[in-house]
Write a structure and sequence with these properties.
The protein is of the alpha/beta class. The chain has four domains: 11-194, Restriction Endonuclease (3-Layer(aba) Sandwich), CATH 3.40.91; 201-406, 3-Layer(aba) Sandwich (Rossmann fold); 412-477, no CATH class; 485-597, no CATH class. Helix content is 51%, strand content 11%. It has 25 helices and 13 strands. The strands form three sheets. A five-stranded mixed sheet has the order 1-2-3-4-5, with helices on both faces. Strands 7-8-9-6-10 form a five-stranded parallel sheet, sandwiched between helices. A hairpin with a 4-residue loop joins β2 and β3. The chain is elongated. It starts with 10 loop residues before the first helix and ends with a helix. Mean pLDDT is 84; it is low at 1-5 and 590-598.
């Protein structure tokens, strides 16, 4: 790598600096190696230590984070074979580094640099060259010396370098730091040295920063996860702590062993995903974590390998650029991780969110693979799912052990407390609305409506209004099963079918429908849609999961949509009163007149 965006400095001053560096012994703590170790330690914040007896295995010194360096104090050109052999040595070692830094008092030629970089990339080793190009306005080695100017001056003074030389070097370094463009060049170098791909602590810091930012901002969460998983974002009803549940999840994540899966289970809208995020935010030193929405996985995923899958998500959620060399470095790093010992925290967490949102995926096979991989490499797998889907379609065929955390709705007492705190009179709410508001997601939607002026008071709420706003909120947050207009049409067509069945005097299974294969068209549900909508709107029949019916409240909403559409058609070219009259009798037969019309 070369340092871009460097300013222009006068060559005589730089010559004084390089002359002082070349006057040092080439190796040892008192030589050029020792100076480079001190400079890199200052810039990176990591402790670089020298190898015990000069260069060993292609390195003169190293930090504990997988970054090593080789120091070459030369007066003439460095033979290419020396450079190439050093990179091969470190790349072919038992524990290759993530980054190899070459510090040299002479120039590394362009052709040699290209060959070196290409070879190191194939070995999965990053390369950073701090040399002294003759035509460079600011040689990279001069840049890093100026970035640690005080350390360089102190180092020279401690080695009894002539005071006049020390003073001249100090003046050069101070002048470099004052030049326009120096800060940009220094920032570019620091960013490279601290890039996520180059050292695990850097990757963990980047991952932690990115996830925390996403959990606090819906827009960033949608960009990263494809859905608004942001419990800490500003909202009309701020997310409430569920301390006991959060602690249970944290303890389960940190203690799960031998491929044990941590499963957050509950009904739709109970806050399973948000609970994971809240629990994770409370981990003092969170391990590497990837959040994987289930709907982002293709149906062929279970037939693939876990390692490339994990590497791709880690690159994405550490904010790095996906390259072959970077994948090789991650692969080598993860392959060195073995099973965790008793009491050791996990090295990584994989959280697959919303299994029921990708219902046709072969979950037992894929979860078995991922949990086995996590056990072998010291990680842990966590999932969230609608409880009924998990036990009906996943659990029975799942080989790994499962630690389940039940995520309930608000209790009556908890909901009453929340309403009292927000000065909402519980007695003014209908029992049906109060019961629905125990669902944390619906409660949040209700307060969003109030805050946005959609309603003046909670007395304007109805179950149908809550469910309709639930559909709209799902689309906004990226968790809707299909576009709002399409889903409303689907509900309406179900209601029209029910009405036609009543008109034809069908007496059995008037509310029962067959699921249809994906891609077959029509209004009936596919298995995937049934898995996502199977609580508020549709419900599978217990005796036959291929059949489903409209849920009680879903039926009222569907009839309302159907009635509106019928009246709109009549208004365009017919008799509205006649159309309404034709619909009232079938609706009355379902005992839904009040809910539908009013």
């Amino acid at each position: 790598m070369t340092i871009a965006g460097t300013p222009c400095f006068s060559r005589p001053r730089l010559d004084a600096l390089v002359a002082a560096l070349k006057a040092l012994p080439p190796s040892g703590a008192d030589g050029f190696e020792g100076l480079l170790a001190r400079v890199l330690s200052r810039i990176s914040g990591q402790d670089f230590r020298l190898a015990r007896s000069g260069g060993q295995g292609g390195l003169d010194g190293a930090a504990l984070t997988g970054v090593v360096f080789e120091a070459k104090r030369y007066d003439e050109k460095i033979p290419n074979d020396q450079i190439f052999s050093k990179v091969f040595q470190v790349g072919a070692g038992v524990a290759p580094p993530h980054l190899w830094i070459l510090g040299a008092t002479v120039e590394v030629g362009t052709q040699a640099l290209q060959t070196l970089t290409a070879g190191a990339d194939r070995l999965g080793v990053g390369v950073l060259i701090l040399d002294w190009p003759t035509a460079s306005p600011l040689p990279p080695l001069a840049l890093v010396c100026a970035m640690a100017a005080a350390d360089v001056v102190e180092f020279l003074r401690e080695r009894d370098v002539v005071e006049g030389t020390v003073a001249e070097v100090g003046a050069v370094l101070v002048a470099l730091r004052r030049e326009e463009g120096f800060d940009a060049a220094a920032d570019a170098f620091t960013g490279r040295l601290r890039a996520p791909a180059l050292a695990l602590p850097n990757a963990m810091e980047a991952n932690n920063r990115i996830l925390r930012a996403a959990f606090c901002d819906r827009r960033q969460a949608r960009n990263l996860f494809g859905q608004g998983l942001a419990p800490e974002a500003e909202a009309a009803l701020p997310t409430r702590e569920r301390r006991q549940l959060e602690e249970t999840v944290r303890a389960s994540l940190l203690s799960a062993q031998n491929g044990e899966i941590v499963a957050l289970l509950g009904r739709e809208g109970h806050g399973k995903s948000w609970l994971f995020a809240q629990a994770w935010l409370g981990i003092e030193a969170a391990p590497l974590t990837v959040v994987v929405p289930a709907k982002s996985l293709g149906l062929a995923t279970p037939h693939g390998q876990v390692l490339p899958f994990l590497i791709g998500r880690l690159i994405e959620q550490t904010g790095d650029q996906d390259t072959e060399g970077l994948r090789a470095r991650w692969r080598r790093r993860i392959e060195t991780w073995g099973p965790r010992t008793e009491g050791e925290p996990p090295r990584f967490i994989i959280f697959i969110d919303g299994l029921n949102e990708q219902s046709e995926l072969e979950w037992p096979r894929w979860l078995g693979k991922v949990s086995g991989f996590a056990a072998e490499h010291g990680g842990v797998l966590a999932i969230s799912s609608r409880q009924a889907f998990f036990y009906d379609h996943v659990y029975r065929e799942l080989a790994p052990a499962v630690t389940s955390v039940q995520v309930p709705e608000w209790s009556e007492a908890e909901l009453t407390t929340i309403l009292d705190e927000r000065r909402v009179d519980r007695s003014a709410l209908s029992p049906a609305v109060f019961e629905r508001l125990r669902n944390p997601r619906l409660l949040g939607i209700a307060f969003d409506l109030l805050g946005a002026g959609g309603i003046a008071t909670f007395t304007e709420l109805s179950v149908d209004r809550l469910l309709f706003e639930h559909i709209r909120a799902g689309a906004r947050d990226g968790v809707a099963p299909e576009p709002v207009e399409q889903f409303v049409k689907r509900l309406s067509l179900h209601a029209q079918e029910v009405i036609e069945r009543i008109r034809s005097q069908r007496t059995e299974d008037r509310l029962v429908f067959d699921q249809v294969p994906a891609g077959s068209g029509g209004f009936a549900l596919t298995p995937a849609l049934a898995a996502v909508t199977a609580e508020h709107f549709f419900r599978p029949l217990p005796e036959d999961p291929t059949l489903y019916t409209l849920a009680e409240d879903g039926m009222s909403l569907a009839l309302g949509f159907s009635l509106v559409k019928a009246l709109q058609r009549a208004d365009r070219g017919g008799d509205v009163s006649e159309a309404l009259g034709e619909l009232i009798d079938p609706i009355a037969a379902l005992d839904k007149t009040a809910e539908t019309v009013f």
